[in-house]
Write a structure and sequence with these properties.
This protein is α/β, with parallel strands linked by helices. The protein folds into 4 domains: 27-321, Rossmann fold; 329-483, Succinyl-CoA synthetase domains (Rossmann fold), CATH 3.40.50.261; 529-603, ATP-grasp fold, A domain (Dna Ligase, domain 1), CATH 3.30.1490; 609-723, 2-Layer Sandwich (D-amino Acid Aminotransferase, Chain A, domain 1). The chain contains 24 helices and 29 strands. The protein is flat.
């Protein structure tokens, strides 16, 4: 958190100049106002050069910003050689962007004056708002209200501003901007944390990644992280947007952002923390208990090609790779190395991250033999050995190896793993690789396993060309896995017409006015004959009518998982149903289980593979999800589940089943009969269609177990849970 007050400065004058502006809330105007202003006013700027509030003007002057600059502070007539104004209203020319450097108590006034002066946006740097307690919350509410009334957009408070590298707009006080930035790369960054943002800017500059745009959103009293990211996608000069998120709770906006990036062919890369803030809920079902709180965001990201990363270095590595390389058409890599051991290590890491290392074609291997020493290897990894550096024309040989591997039809990217190639020779090799990368139509990425001090000249050459160099083969493999096309598919199906009646039936089951068999029947999912009895005599009669061994279960709306308290008895003969009823009711009394309505008696069904089908909707704008896994009472132990956005097609539902570790159980493991997979697929599809119709609500729905009998004998929902208490 930055300091609450930069330093005590005089409040700017409160006189206004022009009528209130209605303001345009479109993404285009957000982009224009924040990142492409024709003029910038700095309110509350200090005359002390060492002050944080003096930095933005100094940065803007040094970076060559060509727009008009208006310092505002009634105590000065001039600052840094520029006329200083007593108030925003005193400025004659038009104002696009206002930087508010005043303490928290004076910010709302600055926003009102900005609206009167016709400004489009205000960046509020000061902290002391919602992050400090009730008094700050009130100040932030006042700020948001002032922004709405003034018709201006506000970035912040408690933020560190924006940068547009292409225009020399350095509207920030972060020390990371206090040096020359690399040229724009087409990669932008926006994040909630000012400190993380400063680190991202500094580390990006260190590796030669010139961020085209950079922004810190802070407390988000008005403009949000997602809104700024959405605006950045509208810039033709930006191809990749990096994001740091401390929680995205507006699912609708995030889904729209992901869709937009996908439609424009641009990439989003997100580092998120505070993951429990997404889709937070008190899960009642086994499924809900197993799913991460941010799974709706994760599934949305997977569906639209958004890349999720786990740390700052990974965020920058992926951004740099996307900026500097050509797109990959598949997930296969050709490895070139100066060390056989390093090549094997790289192959292990690529396999671990789902990237294939195929054997190169025989023609490719024959061509490589012209350049690779006899004791090297040409299959993949290609081990050129350190001896290649002793050849007369070694630079040409290394370049030819890169070009030859890249031409192989089974290769989608080239990974070069260097070991102790140092000093002048290392610098020459860096030059070879930069030129080789420019000459092939596939990505070429490098990891250099040597100390920085011994490779400074080569690394600087890579940096000058914005060419990412990875510190380890693990980092390289993980990055390639991120930028490669995703595994599998997410085949979301349109809901079918019959689901239109399901929400009302779902509600009827939830409030007890309909039985679960009715809902399952409407879904087309078979279930055993069931009856709820409230006394021992009826238990005996119901079991006798079924005429075969039955299952008996305590029935209570407050008992989500009956087996957890021993409330399930299986294989009970009709003659023993009366005594089992008495046992179960005594169990309910001893455990003080509330709202026990009696005992559920069900016919026993054929044995089979037990699955769990869960469906969850968080009701916060994120899509509903369907989950399938190996079920029964051990489901939370094995946690073998696959989730996807609902609804799903039959093809996608089958793919989900095939991706389970327990799939062999369904597919005839060790000579056992194959299960009725088609029936299981139908149940998954039906549940997904149901939850899709409930996506505007917070609910959970779970079948556990769904017993999948032998092929041709169907699948049966034995137990059903409905919860509307998700929050």
């Amino acid at each position: 958190m930055q300091q609450a007050i930069f330093e005590k400065t005089e409040d700017p004058a409160k006189e206004g100049g022009v009528p209130l502006s209605d303001g345009d809330q479109s993404n285009g105007n957000v982009l224009s106002a924040l990142f492409k202003p024709r003029s910038v006013a700095i309110v509350g700027m200090s005359g002390k050069s060492e002050s944080l509030t003096a930095r933005p003007l100094a940065f803007l002057q040094r970076s060559g910003f060509t727009g008009e600059l208006y310092p505002v502070n009634p105590n000065y007539e001039e600052l840094r050689g520029i006329t200083c104004y007593p108030s925003l209203g005193a400025i004659v020319g038009p104002i696009d962007l206002v930087l508010s450097m005043v303490p928290a108590a004076g910010v709302a006034d600055v926003v009102r004056q900005a609206g009167q002066a016709g400004a489009k946006a205000v960046i509020v740097f000061a902290s002391g708002f919602a992050e400090v307690g009730p008094e700050g919350v009130a100040l932030q509410s006042e700020l948001a209200q002032a922004a709405r009334e003034a018709g201006v957009r506000v970035l912040g408070p408690n933020c560190q501003g924006v940068i547009n590298n292409s225009l020399g707009l350095i509207a920030t006080f972060t020390g990371a901007a206090d040096r020359e930035l690399p040229p724009p790369s087409g990669v932008a960054y926006v994040g909630q944390s000012g400190a993380i943002g400063g680190s991202v800017l500094d580390l990006a500059t260190e590796i030669g990644l010139g961020l085209t745009a950079w922004a810190s959103t802070g407390n988000q009293a008005d403009l949000t992280l997602v809104e700024v990211a959405t605006a950045l996608l509208d810039d033709d000069g930006i191809r990749v947007v990096l994001m740091y998120a401390e929680g995205i709770t507006d699912g609708s906006s995030f889904v729209a952002l992901a869709k937009k990036a996908d439609a424009l062919g641009k990439r989003l890369v997100i580092l998120r923390s505070g993951r429990s803030s997404v889709g937070r809920r008190a899960a009642a079902s086994h499924t809900g208990a197993m799913l991460g709180d941010d799974l709706p965001l994760v599934l949305t990201a997977q569906h639209y090609g958004v890349i999720l990363v786990d740390d700052v270095d990974e965020l920058l590595a992926v951004g740099a790779a996307l900026a500097s390389t050509k797109p990959m058409s598949g997930r296969r890599v050709g490895i070139i190395t100066t060390s056989g051991g390093a090549g094997i290590l790289a192959a292990d890491h690529f396999e671990l991250h789902g990237v294939e290392v195929p054997e190169l074609a025989s023609e490719t291997q024959q061509d490589l033999q012209k350049f690779v020493p006899d004791f090297g290897a040409t299959s993949n990894p290609v081990d050129v050995t350190a001896q290649i550096l002793n050849m007369a024309n070694w630079t040409d040989a290394f370049a030819n190896v890169c070009a030859t591997v890249a031409k192989d039809p089974s290769v989608d990217a080239v990974a070069v793993v260097l070991t102790m190639v140092t000093g002048k020779q290392g610098a020459m090799l860096a030059d070879v690789l930069v030129r080789a990368a420019a000459g092939i139509d596939k990505p070429l990425l490098v990891t250099w396993l040597a100390g920085r001090e011994q490779t400074l000249e080569g690394r600087e050459l890579f940096r000058e060309h914005s060419f990412p160099v990875f510190p380890s083969v693990g980092d390289l493999a993980r990055t390639v896995a991120h930028i490669a096309p995703a595994l599998g598919f997410t085949d979301v199906a349109p809901a079918v017409a019959r689901v239109s009646t399901l929400p009302a039936l779902f509600d009827a089951c939830a409030n007890g006015s309909a039985q679960s068999e009715e809902l399952l029947g409407a879904l087309g999912v078979a279930s055993p004959h069931s009856v709820i009895v409230s006394n021992a005599e009826d238990a005996g009669r119901a079991a006798g009518e079924i005429g075969a061994p039955v299952a008996m279960k305590l029935h209570s709306s407050q008992l989500a998982h009956k087996s957890d308290v021993g409330g399930v008895r299986l294989g009970i003969e009709p003659s023993g149903a009366t005594s089992v009823f008495v046992e179960l009711m005594a169990l309910a009394d001893s455990n003080e289980i509330p709202d026990v309505e009696g005992v559920l008696i069900q016919e026993m069904i054929p044995a089979g593979v037990e699955l769990i089908i869960g469906a969850t909707s968080t009701g916060d704008g994120f899509p509903a999800m369907v989950t399938v896994g190996i079920g029964g009472i051990t489901t939370e132990i094995y946690r073998d589940v696959i989730s996807q956005i609902a609804p799903v097609s039959a093809r996608s539902a089958r793919s989900m089943l095939e991706r389970l570790r327990g799939w062999p159980l369904l597919n005839g493991f060790r000579g056992s009969a194959k299960a009725d997979v088609n029936a299981a697929v139908g149940a998954v599809v039906a549940v997904s269609e149901l939850i899709a119709t409930l996506s505007d609500r917070a609910v959970e729905f779970e079948i556990n177990p769904l017993i999948v009998a032998a092929e041709g004998q169907g699948a049966y929902a034995v137990d059903l849970l409905i919860s509307t208490a998700v929050s």
